[in-house]
Input
Amino acid sequence: MRMSGLIERISGDGADAWVTHYAARAAEDRGEDVVVLSVGDPDLDTHPGIVERAVAALRAGDTHYTPASGREPLRQAIAATHLARTGQAVAIDQIAVLSGGQNALFAVLSCLAGPGDEVIAFDPMYTTYPATVGAGGATLVRVVQSAERGFRFDAAAFRAALSPRTRVVLLTTPNNPTGVTMTDDELAVVAEAAVQHDLVIVADEVYSGIAPLGRVPGLAARLPERVVTVGSLSKTHAMTGWRVGWLVAPRELIVGVEALTMCMLFGLPGFIQEAAVTALGLSATCEATARAYLDERKELMLAALADVPKVSALRPDAGMFVLLDVRGTGLSSAEFMRRLFATERVSVVDGAAFGRATDGFVRLSFATRPALIAEGCRRIARFCRAL
Ligand SMILES: Cc1ncc(COP(=O)(O)O)c(C=O)c1O
Output
């Protein structure tokens, strides 16, 4: 069947990187002995209070259409969370509730950048970004943040990437896959360029609540008229499957997002929104649980990988991933991923899926059971020794 230009623009990109992951998941479903370290979805249960609220709302008949931008109590709870994390006070009409951070990214980029426009994003980046930027017809301009710089912001490369067509700068802090959090000084360079070139900054902060301080440096309070913040309950509240995310943005942009919502999402289910209000009321508990869970597992993984020959693991600032430098093995990161799975049945993700900067690295998730982390690292060590 002939597909639209939109589908052509968003198909195919990076698909190879996930073949191993899907093969590992299928093997796991068949009951085979595999260790899946390829996905960032903690095996934490959603807090029972949140689940009970959803069930109660369903039983009470909360099964009808809801307002396109989300119910007021949820938007109030998001405003309070946003204020605590960023220091920016917002009105509820500056908030749109969407179906996860991914949906929010799609909505805001569709509103802001189309054919002829450029969106700057930092490489390595979350794997959906190229398609999400490309869907609306905009061009993705990658600013490579090299391994040699610890994958940190490169001001000179950023400035060189700016052009009269730049409309948006897409930041991810903390970053997936590197776990790097941007500093105030790095952000100041972006802020200055945004003002000078009239740009919008889209800050994907879905991991900020599980950063060590429960927040990260940001620009929302400083540049409220040009910063859009993307948030989500997925990572902070162990709610990946609930699909609750949001945008905090200037009102004008929310109006555009509402128009898009009417032809795409048509409102998040009411019982999910009620549970999300409960979740935001339980943020302190949920985030502390997620942080403790991740800290323990991160240390386990780093310790288990410390003496593995030919590779070295990078300590992340935040998030749920460790990058492993495999350039000393003589294998490309894609070969490392494929052969590790073929011989040891451990799935990881080829860093090249996230960009050029992480070619030569593989991404390991530590959001899984300690016994699996230990076993996966044992197998990685055996694999590396045998090379
Ligand atoms: C950087 C980043 N942004 C956005 C998302 C999307 O998350 P969700 O749609 O579950 O909120 C993810 C998920 O892994 C991510 O890593």
Summary: The chain has two domains: 5-45+285-386, 48-282. The chain has a mean pLDDT of 96.
